[in-house]
Amino acid sequence: MAIAQIMQLLTGIFEGLLGIPLFGGLYIMGSGYTPLFVMLVLHIITLFLASRNGRWIAGSVLGIVTSIIGFIPIVGMVMHWITSIVLIFSVFQSRKY
């Protein structure tokens, strides 16, 4: 498993945890929205690694968008779910297309 795939899997798991109803929102707000910034950085790193290795980048791009708008209560939760699913799905894709 390549480092890009590991990063996709890790960011997918983290997004899934942040999308847990009530727990994710309380954690994000209780931490002063720092987890969204950390995830933004991780998604940018993952995007770079995936792009360089010819992997599917849609999950990382979606993750960047989610990190930017994730502070909106219900929208953020749903975006975390979608991003998590796309990132975990992208681990099993062999190439971009």
Strand and helix layout:
Elements: H1 3-18, H2 23-30, H3 34-52, H4 58-69, H5 73-91
Please characterize this protein's 3D structure.
The protein is mainly α and 97 residues long. The protein has helices at residues 3-18, 23-30, 34-52, 58-69, 73-91. Helix 1 (3-18) packs antiparallel against helix 5 (73-91), helix 3 (34-52) runs antiparallel to helix 4 (58-69) and helix 4 (58-69) packs antiparallel against helix 5. The protein is elongated, with a radius of gyration of 13 Å. The mean pLDDT is 93.
Short description:
By secondary structure, the chain is mostly helical. The protein has helices spanning 3-18, 23-30, 34-52, 58-69, 73-91.
SSE arrangement, N to C: HHHHH
List segments where confidence is low: pLDDT < 50 over at least 5 consecutive residues: none
Radius of gyration: 13 Å
> Total number of helical segments?
5
What would you call the shape? elongated
Give the total of beta strands.
Answer: 0
Distance between the termini: 19 Å
Helix content: over 70%
